[in-house]
Amino acid sequence: MSLSRESLKKVFESFDLDGNGYVSVQELGNCLRSLGEVMSEEDVKGLIDASDKDADGKMDLDEFISMVHAEQDQNEQDDMQKAFQMFDKNGDGSITKNELKDVLKSLGDCPSDDDLDAMFREADRDGDKRITFDEFKTMIEMVD
Q1: What are phi and psi of 94, to 5 degrees?
Q2: Cα separation, 29 vs 113, whole angstroms
Q3: Residue 95, SS3 per DSSP
Q4: How crowded is residue 95: how many other Cβ atoms within 10 Å of its Cβ?
Q5: Beta partners for residue 94, in sequence order
Q6: Which among 7, 59, 65, 144 could disulfide-bond with 3, CB atoms 3.0 to 4.6 Å apart, if both were Cys?
Q7: Rounded Cα gap, residues 38 and 90, in angstroms
Q8: pLDDT in tens, 23-65
């Protein structure tokens, strides 16, 4: 779920304590600490540097929005990887039909063999009888 530009602008403005249109290392650090994030000044500076497209040492609204979206994308990727690992019981980097069936059963969903076959065929894009992470991701994105 991506926050709207208007929502992010409000957050940015609350971080921009002096109202100059930029968030400095000190302002970002203070705000993060008030939210319970313990980061060194060097780490906060690293956050700004990674987002500072014009290399002026501070973060404007567009850079802030880019930073937040990049963090959201990374969190979504991490969540997707954790979900995949839940299905990939033997940790070999792919999901077999039996692994899919076992996890669905453990979640209280007991599809018929025909439904399971159809579900697996739809997800297994290359037909190798295994669902890779990319295939899993595609399948989940189709459901969302």
Answers
A1: -150, 160
A2: 54
A3: strand
A4: 26
A5: 132
A6: 7
A7: 36
A8: 999 999 988 888 888 889 999 999 899 989 999 988 999 999 9
